[in-house]
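Table S7 (text form). Paired inputs.
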Amino acid sequence: MDRFLDRIERTGNRLPDPAMLFVYCLGLVLVLSALFSMFSFSYINPRTGEALQVANLIDADYLADLFASMVNTFTSFAPLGMVLASVMGVGIAESSGYINIALKKMVRVTPDKLLAPAVVFIGAVSSIATDAGYVLVIPIGAIIFKAAGRHPLAGLAAAFAGVSGGFSAGLLPSALDPLLQSFTQSAAQLFDPDYQMNPLANYYFTFCSTFLVTLMGWFVTERIVEPHLQSVEVSDEEGSVEDMSSYSAQENRAFTVSSLVLLGMGLALFALCLPETSPMRAADGSLTAFSSPLMRSIVPLIFIFFLTPGVIYGRMTGTFKNHRDVIGSMSGSMKTMSSYIVMAFFCSQFLKAFGDSNLGTLLALSGADLLQAMNLPGQVTIVGIVLLTAVVNLCVGSASAKWAIIGPIFVPMLMAVGISPELAQAAYRIGDSSSNIITPMMSYYPVIIVFTQRYVKNAGIGTVASMMMPYSIVFMIGWTAFLLLFWALGLPLGIGATYTYPIM
């Protein structure tokens, strides 16, 4: 296992930064467009209804337009505004301490017998705060297990499985929802320019998946991982570990007030949406239609619903002394997004060129012909997408980078054989989340090793991988089967989502 993971790590380290991947992909698209423009194809372009023709992008006029529109292409890139706005709101709630104490309180009220499922569950729920779970829930999981007389690495593994393995599960929408939706919609529009997709297109599935991940994590922790760890001796710690599960009376009071305000905001929004004449409804009275103000306000609502309790909590505890601290918190959250902004710049240029070239349409239609010739059931195709995503995740850790690369190819291809973008996105999320916990390319993997070494001094990648491999296998099999069950029963994936795309 160590040799295998070392080989994966060396291979992954040879890959360029995701931003440079898009630069290389852009260059490849330019070259391939010139090559394939010399051939004629029998396919009909679904956008125009005319014979498909690959456009030659190595053309003076096109290249001049590409450079002239480069800034506008970047600023109009759909994921950019959605992600940054969401992260600013979540960043305030996180830096104020509001999210941290919420997680602490959830852990403290849990009976000892339910520690394992509680830690996995809290880890999955913490995905709404992105990085908070890695730095808070995972070490707390180890501390709680050790205090209960159980192996601390079992608690660490359970928390890691919930936080990272269950990253695409959650009871509430997170910044990941509009991020992936925007990539999926852009990819779908390569095949159908008018296609629209709701940011919460997978919400019902991810909500239910929270409980599935909890049950699977509970089973793996108590039946596989914890018994295996009984032979792993816990090292004597030098000094005590910080008690991350405690909080003061002032913090408790601030959390109570902030949470009551958050609850009031939720009730006010519900009351606003309830009347048939509500301004949050679409013209036909629907709340869930993509055109409804409510659905178009998902990202601003995420921003406000995290910002408000975060500011109140910060003011009451002294974390935020004035408005400058609040703005500084927003600025701090943007610093962590600098690499994403750079990646988004190059990604937007690549997607524009890829769409203009018609190469994506050619790949989709030719791939659809291959899939139709193979005559595989749709369920088998979805399993293939899950497995492919897991393999790619071993070398490219960023969820958005992977989907930005493979989404424009597979989403249109699957649409051409009648599989909806919403279903393709759900399959991608399963493959990505299930393999997060075994890929050294995941940015927080070194942090997990450091947490592990608090209790086992000679722990390394192999130690973490041997703990997490059972979670990865069980999650991938169980979660994929759960998606196929959803499909078989016709249960809704999310708001406005379908399983099939009508083939014209």
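Next pair, protein 2 of 2.
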Amino acid sequence: MKYLFSSAIILACLAVAKYLSLLLNSSFPAPLLAMVMLLLLLLTGVVKEHQLKPTASPLLNYMPLFFIPAGVGIVEHLGLIGQHWSLLLTVFIIVPLSSVLLIGGVIAYFKGRENDD
């Protein structure tokens, strides 16, 4: 019975999210909206963790299986990745590095302003 109840809560969140997506004609993914709704229900205490645990625990154990399609997508496009490897490598290095430098500069600026007061 506990499995049925916890599954019903999760599926109800998904059903409401799909209905909202259709009603609002939104391109926002319904599963993501359902997870946000479930988080809000947990944070407000409407739903307790022990109510979801029977169904959520087995799903979390098999979570890596949900990422297999992304890995297959990468393997399917290895030729394209091979053609543009230098651009991809540059982007993977320059974007994080510039982000770190920008954030560091902003923090240093505000730390300097804080000391001037």
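Residues 85-117 form one domain.
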